[in-house]
Amino acid sequence: MRATPGSWKSEPFPADRARLKLEQAFSAAEWDALQQGVIPEEMEDKWFIYEERGWLYFHRSWTGFCVFRVWLKKTPTGGEIAEAWVNRNKEQYTCVDDAYDARLLSWLIHVLLLKRPALFPDSGQLDGMEPLRQWSSVGRAMLAHDNDGRAAAGLDEAMRKSTEDCRAAMGIAARPGRSETSVSPLLFHSAHRRRPTPAPLADLRDCPSGC
User: Fold this and answer.
1) Is residue 121 part of a domain?
2) Which of 75, 78, 180, 189 lies at a C-alpha separation of 20 to 30 Å from 196?
3) d(CA 147, CA 141)
């Protein structure tokens, strides 16, 4: 089903914005795929995308905030990106790195709209939490092309480390008889079987947001 502005909640694109450097051309078939957009099906689907009057709008599914806006120009062979913009309202989107945002937008186009694998942009932070940042940004889409299980394994490890750090900060010992096992198989099956997913690593919900 083609996404429309009324398919999901959405907020207007703010006046505080920045233009991104992103050039891409699309075949006729890819052009048609872009027009379909993306409608979230589960809470782990983090983006709502639709096309209206030549513009592609990329909204966060939970808040409705519009993070990216892309103007598509029709060409004899399909189409191309004429303009790309990013939200710079700090109350809606905190990233301020134009280069990173251009790479993230390209990833969203390739994986969510064109349904093909792409390398997720790395934040450059060496804290072992990159998989969790990716999960927070794109949800189960990060597992859509995880054929070798590396993304799922990385998410497992990051979740385990986050739980351990959180418990240590709160002075909480591991619960007796409870194994801090991996949860990525649940997430992996959700990504491929399109069914609701149990909350990833329930222990994380016991921790305050700042830890």
Assistant:
1) no
2) 180
3) 13
